[in-house]
From TrEMBL:
Residue ranges of every copy of the ABC transporter domain listed in the record: 6-241
KW Nucleotide-binding (keyword) present: yes
Keywords, ordered alphabetically: ATP-binding, Nucleotide-binding, Transport
Protein's organism: Ureibacillus xyleni
The protein, known as: Zinc transport system ATP-binding protein
PROSITE patterns for the chain: ABC_TRANSPORTER_1, ABC_TRANSPORTER_2
């Protein structure tokens, strides 16, 4: 049986006066490719931030790789690509190589020396996302989809065991979205990286993922993708409003 690497038990959260997450419990196992679905404002980004230790829950328990979140010391095992990673304009003064290399700081510490094989590590990370020929380019000259791949390479260079992505395809055109998700599948299958993805692209991801979680303040469903396929559209609408529409 696969190892449980992320576990949330009865987690609740509120921003000042707004209750955002209510009694959330779920587990993610090593090798899962989990899509978190939910309407705008349903708490998806908040849930990820709690998972990453950026926000503290009001109640509940979180375990990462079997350790309580508070004492977990291997943050570099969890790579994060945020919603707004692909928002650099053409004047931003950094090359693709520099952006990817900056991801090593998470692993070696901000003020320590870069490893001797840093250039090779940059090359490998760019290769994994199909961007090796863009190494010397300015990050701001790339399309949104290409920038997003570079930020995944930046996360990969720290050798994460889990990759957490918050709506990574916003602003990417349909054709590039397909190949973007194919790239995530190969990271998941070939490098055994567990993937947690917040997305609205239900139809595009549905044949690529292993698990689905439907979130709207609380987890209404979490299970295998095949079980998700059995849920009626009527039930989904009840949980999600009209944000999740399955294509058959
Ligand atoms: N820093 C904050 N202070 C107060 N309220 C916040 C803050 N961040 C988010 N919220 C509120 O918390 C709720 C959940 O927000 P969150 O960003 O987690 O939702 P989401 O599901 O990721 O939404 P979207 O799909 O639109 O990105 C929303 O009602 C939002 O307005």
């Amino acid at each position: 049986m696969s190892k449980t690497i992320i576990e949330m038990k009865n987690v609740s959260f509120q921003y000042e006066y707004t209750q955002v997450l209510n009694n959330i419990s779920f587990k993610v196992n090593e090798g899962d490719f989990l899509a978190i679905l939910g309407p705008n404002g349903s708490g998806k980004s908040t849930l990820l931030k709690i998972l990453l230790g950026l926000l503290k829950p009001l109640a509940g328990e979180i375990k990462l790789f079997g350790q309580p979140n508070d004492t977990f010391r291997h943050r570099e095992w969890i790579g994060y690509v945020s919603q707004k990673s692909n928002a650099f304009n053409s004047g931003f003064p950094a090359t693709v190589e520099e952006v990817v290399k900056s991801g090593l700081a998470k692993k070696v510490g901000l003020f320590k020396r870069m490893p001797n094989d840093a250039a090779k590590q940059v090359q490998d990370a760019l290769k994994a996302v199909g961007m090796e020929s863009f190494r010397g380019k300015n990050i701001g000259e790339l399309s949104g989809g290409q920038q997003q791949r570079v930020f995944i390479a930046r996360a990969l260079i720290a050798k994460p065991k889990v990759l957490v992505l918050d709506e990574p395809t916003v602003g990417i055109d349909h054709e590039n979205v397909q190949s973007f998700y194919d790239m995530l599948v190969s990271l998941n299958k070939e490098q055994n990286i567990t993937i947690i993805l917040v997305t609205h692209d239900v139809d595009t991801v549905s044949n690529r993922i292993s698990h689905v979680a439907c979130l709207n303040q609380t987890i209404h469903f979490h299970g295998y993708k095949q079980e998700f396929d059995e849920i009626s559209q009527e039930q989904l609408d009840k949980w999600q409003g009209h944000a999740v529409r399955k294509i058959h």
